[in-house]
Amino acid sequence: MKTQIFGVSLSLFLINLAAIMERADENLLPSVYKEVSEAFNAGPSDLGYLTFIRNFVQGLSSPLAGILVINYDRPTILAMGTFCWALSTAAVGVCQDFLQVAFWRAINGFGLAIVIPALQSFIADSYKDGVRGAGFGLLNFIGSIGGIGGGVLATIMAGHQFWGIQGWRCAFILMATLSAIIGFLVLRYVVDPRQRYTTIHDDRESSGRNDSIYKGNASLTSVWIESLAAMKAVIKVQTFQIIVLQGIIGSLPWTAMVFFTMWFELIGFDNNTSATLLSLFAIGCAVGSFLGGSLADKLSQVYPHSARIMCAQFSAFMGIPFSWFLLKVIPQSVSSYLTFCVTLFLMGLTISWNGTAANAPMFAEVVPVKHRTMIYAFDRAFEGSFSSTAAPLVGILSEKMFGYNSKSVDPIKGSSPEALALSKGLLSMMAVPFGLCCLCYTPLYYIFKRDRENARMLTVKEEEMI
């Protein structure tokens, strides 16, 4: 028993380390947008395309995670994805041409596409219904630490040179090395919770059956047939359809936020101060995601069919006033540092609930256990593909509509007119999508209960057939 508990704890510890590196990798490039812009003579729209390429490839490739999990255990899939993004991150650090960067960002998206759904379904299987929001919140909280670390490290290193190499390049190579190490540890030591359940089940009954979910010797035809059946089962769930719709809209502001570091540097903040501001926002998001998930767990005990939806709508709505206040009301000057600090922390604290309070826990309840990876994979596929347009749209709006001119930017002091133009582009892609996202949750008050009961009936029938 002690060995089993230790194995579970070690697995969750390494999974959280993988989440830390995943978020750190995601925050790496946006944290050095200004330096990359100078190195490759790229404007906001060009930088936006880099985010678009990665997110678009990630979205298209995400269903692959649901297919792979049918034939392989999740630690293997997580390690594969981690090695893939480690290679691509290191490659970006040595690129000498903008098109090379774009290619390797696409490969990075492929690696993340495999990792993220497998991570989410791993957590869904590791926690029970009543505490699953807190489980996802903890994963997000710990992952955000990685996002903070990656962003701060890259932003600070970007202002220096190491052994004659630009600091931002060294940050990419360092992050790739750490990711590869974590990938090896996951492959070597993590045990899939479904395998643990199967082992216990087989030991107790000794029935001679092979109930393993992962069929390493399955034929290619049977894998595709089972994959197609899982895809059809997931896509027809109405709760899934509605959450994906709100996610497509609700992901737009978060994708647009990759320009925050660049915006602060244009205002005139130096690398260290910009890193501090983004860290406060990330800390607020980390605490908020855990708080939102835990609060939704508590409220769902009283309002089992509506509490998670109410929490998500509150969080989405709060994005509207905070976006307006941050980008429109606060004077865009270094003298507004303290106001930016408080606003960013409170904003992160309140707008980060949706995934942990509602989306991820609700997905786990509206499909049978064996389809969980597939539902998370298709969620990433739809949301990632469509939301990837936000970053280039911010750049296009800033340049074409609001007059951003990259040639007018001073490398040290920034540029107030360009900061103002970029803030207008950001506001356009944040306030309105937050409002629409809030409205999109409304049909779930009528649909979620039915889908959850259907999933429970299917699970009972499958258990009776075994």
From TrEMBL:
Subcellular location: Membrane
Record field: transmembrane: 47-70, 77-99, 105-124, 136-159, 171-191, 243-264, 276-295, 307-327, 334-353, 426-448
Coarse class of the protein's main subcellular location: membrane
Gene3D superfamilies: MFS general substrate transporter like domains (1.20.1250.20)
SUPFAM superfamilies registered for this protein in UniProt: MFS general substrate transporter
Pfam family, one: MFS_1
Annotated signal sequence range: 1-20
Entry similarity comment: Belongs to the major facilitator superfamily. Spinster (TC 2.A.1.49) family.
Name this polypeptide is given: Major facilitator superfamily (MFS) profile domain-containing protein
